[in-house]
Amino acid sequence: MKIEARSIGGDLLVAVREARIDAASAIQFKDEMRRLTNGQASRVVLDLGAVAFLDSSGLGAVVAAMKQLGPGRRLELAALSPAVAKVFRLTRMDTVFTIHERAEDAFGGLARVS
Amino acid sequence: VFPSTPLAVRETLAQIVAALTACELPGEERGAIEIVLAEVLNNIVEHAYAAPDSGTIELSLRPTAIGLRCEVLDRGRPMPEGRLPLGGHPERGRREDLPEGGFGWLLIHSLCQDLVYERQASQNRLTFRFAVEVGGGIA
Predict the structure, then answer these.
(1) Which residues in chain A touch residue B9, judged by CB atoms under 8 angstroms apart?
(2) CB pair distance less than 8 Å for A60 and B100
(3) What secondary structure letter does DSSP report for B5?
(4) Which of A4, A103, B101, B136 has its CA at 20 to 30 Å from residue A78's CA atom?
(5) Chain A CA closest to residue B32
(6) For the residues of B108-125, what is the DSSP string, one character each?
(7) Is A113 a residue whose pLDDT tops 60?
(8) Nearest-Cα residue of chain B relative to residue A25
(9) Which residues from B are below 8 Å from A56, CB to CB?
């Protein structure tokens, strides 16, 4: 599973470069997120712009990725495709996460974040 | 008919989405069908069949005047208590208690109609419908 991470200020921007987070890839996603987010960044922004499909296993893995950050650290989401946004809305998980329309919006509108 | 594995489910979904795209079904309706089928099929892979790749799943899609009718058959274990899970919203508490599962049936119930589960002999049969207009036949 291809996921890229880079620091922006004291935060971490993590971009998923896969079209799907589903039952076949949820565990990989969770493990890769654990590896990429084991630093100190207090805020992690997950750019899902490339993800066209996310099922309940994928949703569970995103929730798990947030929980494994531990107390005092936040996971925010950015660039949800319409299908992915719908899954968050129907399950009301859109009320749990701060969701940015674009990844750059999470960083004060800085251009060229991805 | 395909084996009960996550990758076989993924391949089957890709074929169905391609067929629905060829039928010029709008993206939003296609997305709803893909998510429901993914949840239904992965439930069978993860729950009905105890071990991975230990059975087969039979899926048929049939366009009708009232939408796309779907039938899914497997020979795995029956649903808990022999009936459909209700698919309510999982309990929510503090952040560390947030559920990581229990969303599947909620999505299924939200996105399709006429959902019926039957256990017949040693077979599970789930039928449901999407109120979409699909021309032509898709297998």
Answers:
(1) 23-24
(2) yes
(3) S
(4) B101
(5) A83
(6) HHHH-EEEEEEEETTEEE
(7) no
(8) B6
(9) 39, 42, 101, 103-104, 106-107
For residues A33 and A5, the answer to whether their CB atoms sit within 8 Å is no
Tell me the per-residue pLDDT of B5-64, one tens digit each, with 9 for 90 and over.
Answer: 999 999 999 999 999 999 889 999 999 999 999 999 999 999 999 887 889 999 999 999
CA dist., res. B63 & res. B72, Å (int): 15
Rounded to 5°, the CA angle A70-A75-A78 comes to: 170
What type of residue sits at position A84? V
Q: Does B100 touch chain A (CB under 8 A)?
A: yes
pLDDT at B134: 83
Q: Under a CB-based contact definition with an 8 Å cutoff, are residues A92 and A103 in contact?
A: no
CB atoms within 10 A of CB A70: 10
